[in-house]
Design brief:
Elements lengths: L1 H18 L11 E2 L2 E2 L29 E6 L13 E7 L4 E6 L5 E7 L2 E6 L5 E6 L4 E4 L5 E5 L5 E7 L7 E2 H6 L5 H8 L3 H11 L4
Antiparallel strand pairs: 1-2, 3-4, 4-11, 5-10, 5-12, 6-9, 6-11, 7-8, 7-10
Length: 208
Amino acid sequence: MMFFQIFFALSFLFSFSNASDFCVGDLNAPQGPAGYSCKKADAVSVKDFVFSGLRAAGNTSNLLKVALTPAFSTQFPGVNGLDISLVRVDYAVGGRATMHTHPEAAEILVVIQGTLYAGFISTTNKVYTKTLEEGDVMTFPKGLMHFQINVGKSGALAFAFYSSASPGVYLMDNAWFANDMPTDILQETTFLDPDQIKKLKGLLGGTG
């Protein structure tokens, strides 16, 4: 009798351990601060742990001449709860990832092709910049403003890895000019010329 009790207890613990090996995101459920809720175990397949969306280059025909192809929990449910994710970044000549932050994650950028000028600004306003060549890696601490610019004569490619399955992004230019904040308020809070503010609002789709 004792043998069966021990066997049952061990079986229960083993099942619980397997169930907590991962938490594949249920993309049909709401996403909360901790990510998606877990998909039922019998609905999980190997497809949840494989993502092929980074094979092809993105379309860089846009204002910034940059294409971002993410593999976050929303696209890649297998990384849900694992505190990891990545994005493919394609840069046309002159392409740039303008000043932005990732509120939920630190970033490591790996240059696969081309030449990038990249950097970040610390909370003490110290600037750290470097020209990165193929094979170089640079890290951007969590929450700090950073950027990358393709300064080469051809297209560039990089992969960015994050310490979160959903790193979030906060674009400085969009935060200021892609909204309905009145121009006079922006003038008072940024010291920018009103004509320049209106020009940037028009460029980025803002009003006011």
